[in-house]
Design goal:
Elements (H helix, E strand, L loop, with lengths): L3 H35 L6 H27 L2 H7 E3 L3 E3 L1 H25 L11 H28 L5
Antiparallel strand pairs: 1-2
Length: about 160
């Protein structure tokens, strides 16, 4: 059984990813409506299928977070710690989490600027692509941040 701090950590992750899943559904509905209004549904089929598949990925992330609330996380602890005779923070895992966070932050900001009425280069991509990038990038950014901070919270000093 997980301790209270770990239960709170993974409950928060499940709630945040759940909120992003609701946002994904709203983005999917809006993208499908916009494509139908513009008559380009077949032109954005890939984006719509991707959005549907990503919702399934978000659903599994929520399930894994709920499972971690119930049993503790072996995924986070194994990937963020090196276990020889002591717990040591994994530097490659921290670097990978930071790289994913930075890349997805940039993607999120760019897609948000395109969706909002800000004059940025759009490169003739359909709106559905940017609506697919928004929930994807913010979800991956959040999970990367949780992976990065996990050892700071749960790795005891001197371990």
């Amino acid at each position: 059984m997980a301790n209270k701090k770990e239960i709170l950590f993974f409950t928060l992750l499940a709630l945040i990813v759940g909120l992003f899943a609701v946002g994904s559904i709203a983005a999917f509905i809006y993208a499908a409506y916009d494509a139908n209004e513009k008559g380009i549904v077949f032109g954005v089929t890939f984006e719509l299928v991707y959005m549907g598949l990503f919702f399934v990925v978000q659903f599994f992330a929520i399930l894994m977070s709920i499972k971690a609330v119930q049993n503790g996380s072996f995924i986070f602890s194994e990937l963020t710690h090196i276990r020889n005779n002591a717990k040591i923070r994994s530097k490659p895992a921290a670097i990978i989490a930071l790289v994913f966070a930075v890349i997805n932050l940039a993607l999120f900001v760019y897609a948000l600027l395109v969706v909002l009425p800000v004059n940025v280069p759009m490169f003739n991509f359909p709106l559905a692509l940017f609506l697919a990038v928004l929930p994807t990038s913010i979800t991956i950014l959040t999970i990367a941040i949780f992976f990065y901070i996990y050892p700071f919270i749960f790795l005891q000093k001197g371990e």
